[in-house]
Amino acid sequence: MGRGAADKANAAEAAEAGGQLADVESQAESFRRARRARRSELVDDYVELIADLIADGGEARQVDIAARLGVAQPTVAKMLKRLTEEGLVTQRPYRGVFLTAEGQDLADRSRRRHHIVESFLLAVGVDPEHARLDTEGIEHHVSDATLAVFARFVKEAGKP
Amino acid sequence: MGRGAADKANAAEAAEAGGQLADVESQAESFRRARRARRSELVDDYVELIADLIADGGEARQVDIAARLGVAQPTVAKMLKRLTEEGLVTQRPYRGVFLTAEGQDLADRSRRRHHIVESFLLAVGVDPEHARLDTEGIEHHVSDATLAVFARFVKEAGKP
DNA sequence: GCTAGAATATAGCATATGCTATATCAAGCA
DNA sequence: TGCTTGATATAGCATATGCTATATTCTAGC
């Protein structure tokens, strides 16, 4: 046997020391979750932005999406292809992009989540600029349970 | 000129409608920030975990890191190579991994940040399990300004 | 209708992060 | 000492997300 024997000793030690380290499988699940979230957050961002652009100007063009996301136009084109394959948007060659019913649904949910997180940060005392910046990253990692707590907090803070 | 002329009209329209859409450059900066954070969050996770394993059992082995991150061992090996190149960890072939001073510093900062976020979620009423899960994703997207607000909130909540 | 300029499509490349399969090394035990 | 077994190293592949360069198409204005 190699050095594996240390494992049990370590576990016992950790338990005695107060269990700083969480359960292995549980921790692994956290990280898997975070990786999954990372994969889907781009999709959310695109769909949410497309919905905003359509609501705002009637159409969503690749150049505008690219400018707002801070990426190059071919990057957007490639992602739109993927979104089309996933049934979230529809595209006609050389035309604007539109959301399917499913895409619109996802956009609505994303927008709601985004709004709750940003409102919460503001309610808790974060300045508007940082609230806006941080929300863009945080929103994708907030579970439904946590989101509910945030929403309640905002509601309570609104009527003191 | 193509359809670019619609831009100004859209902007004006948005302004009149209440400015739902943020400034283009500002929004692009948010997304760029989020992408940057995404790149560095894995590094933070590794370094933080390595520090925990060393503190807990005296050494950080690839198999343990892999098990806790929920990835395969070669994935860890590849990442450790990168961390070594960045001067955050030291490696001797077929031996455990150790942190450089710089790595230890990053681990300390990550751990502090992690702790503040998790404490904040608990203080605001999130259940422990979701607090732990969500913290893993959120911690990397919290600016210093927001972190300070979280810390203050935890402190206030502690002594009512 | 043509044409010029803007937008989109496509090709090809780079990097990062995963994986499986397999070779190599280290350490305990017969 | 040599063998067995667990850990690490390495090769090769896949996918996702970026980029630049370039071809194609649309639209507006003449």
Automatic annotation (TrEMBL), chains A, B:
Coiled coil: none annotated. Residues 1-27 are annotated as: Disordered. GO terms for cellular component: cytoplasm. Residues 7-27 have a biased composition (Low complexity). One of its GO terms (molecular function) is DNA binding. Signal peptide: none annotated. Pfam families: Fe_dep_repr_C (PF02742), Fe_dep_repress (PF01325). Its main location: cytoplasm. Residues 39-100 form the HTH dtxR-type domain. Keywords: Activator, Cytoplasm, DNA-binding, Manganese, Repressor, Transcription, Transcription regulation. It is found in: Cytoplasm. Homodimer. Belongs to the DtxR/MntR family. In the presence of manganese, represses expression of mntH and mntS. Up-regulates expression of mntP. This is Transcriptional regulator MntR. It comes from Enterovirga rhinocerotis. The lineage of its organism: Bacteria, Pseudomonadati, Pseudomonadota, Alphaproteobacteria, Hyphomicrobiales.
